[in-house]
Every structure is written in structure tokens, then in C-alpha cells.
């Protein structure tokens, strides 16, 4: 909290840390194949290595278990393991999915249109991380006008 007890201090960045046993394969996938620009890279004692990649604007999606199960079914047709999933918005969902498969990702769910009007695919990426590639097919302003969509602030 800031000096005023009821005023939160603004968050400046969301950083997600993925531990990768095969660091080089993960860098080749996320930086080179997916195209996330490298902001910085550091090396330390004992072969310690880190690369900080720019993933554009960050959001934190909080879903209850029923929503998580529904998204798994929509994107893959089956329940998936629990855990954090990364989702990357792109402008060509089918093309990026094919490109990432060529780069070593395993497709868990082919690109498909979702009920919320995006084109989503699910992949197993290096470091055992499940990711979603999504392409918005409808503007957020239009989506929030449809029944069942909106914000908690609107309720």
C-alpha cells in the first residue's frame, strides 16, 4: 500500500518465471520461434542463466475451477493438468500454432473458435509449460455487450 492506506501502489510489470531444464531449447522456442524480444540476459556462477523476454502487455486471468475445466474442454476437448498456463495473443492464430509446432511444441488442441469469439489453440511448449495461442475475432467492446460477458465492476 502507498502512503494513503486505501490507495494501492500501482504494479509496473507482471513477470512470469518459467524454470527450464533445457534453457537453450526454451530460448529458441519463446525468443526465436514465438518472437518475444529479449530485454536482458544475465549469467552467474554455477552456469546460472536467465533471459527476460518482452511479452507485450500483461494481464492476470483469475479463473475458478469450473471456468478452468470449461476452457480446457473448449481448447482441447479434455481436462488438462492443473497449474499456470501462459496465453499469448497473436494476429494469426493458425500460422503461429503451425510455426510453434515446427519449433518443437506439441499441439494439445488445434486452433478452434471459442464461445467468446477468439481462435484458440493449446500447445505443450518446452519446459513442460502448456500455452494457449489466441487470436481475437471480436473487439472487447463488442464482447462486453453480449449476455454473460462484462466485468465484476459492472455487476
UniProtKB/TrEMBL annotation:
Coiled-coil region(s): none
Domain VOC: 10-136
GO molecular function, one term: dioxygenase activity
Keyword set, alphabetical order: Dioxygenase, Lyase, Oxidoreductase
Pfam families membership: Glyoxalase_6
Domain of life of the native organism: Bacteria
Protein name: Catechol 2,3-dioxygenase-like lactoylglutathione lyase family enzyme
Organism listed in the record: Alpinimonas psychrophila
Amino acid at each position: 500500500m502507498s502512503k494513503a492506506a486505501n490507495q494501492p501502489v500501482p504494479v509496473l510489470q507482471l513477470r512470469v518465471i518459467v524454470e527450464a531444464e533445457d534453457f537453450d531449447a526454451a530460448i529458441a522456442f519463446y525468443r526465436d520461434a514465438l518472437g518475444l524480444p529479449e530485454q536482458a540476459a544475465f549469467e552467474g556462477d554455477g552456469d546460472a542463466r536467465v533471459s527476460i523476454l518482452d511479452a507485450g502487455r500483461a494481464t492476470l486471468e483469475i479463473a475458478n475451477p469450473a471456468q478452468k475445466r470449461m476452457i480446457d474442454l473448449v481448447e482441447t476437448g479434455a481436462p488438462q493438468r492443473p497449474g499456470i498456463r501462459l496465453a499469448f495473443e497473436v494476429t494469426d492464430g493458425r500460422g503461429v500454432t503451425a510455426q510453434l509446432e515446427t519449433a518443437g511444441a506439441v499441439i494439445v488442441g488445434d486452433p478452434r473458435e471459442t464461445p467468446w469469439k477468439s481462435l484458440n489453440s493449446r500447445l505443450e511448449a518446452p519446459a513442460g509449460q502448456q500455452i494457449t495461442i489466441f487470436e481475437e475475432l471480436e473487439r472487447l467492446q463488442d464482447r462486453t455487450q453480449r449476455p454473460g460477458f462484462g466485468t465484476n465492476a459492472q455487476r
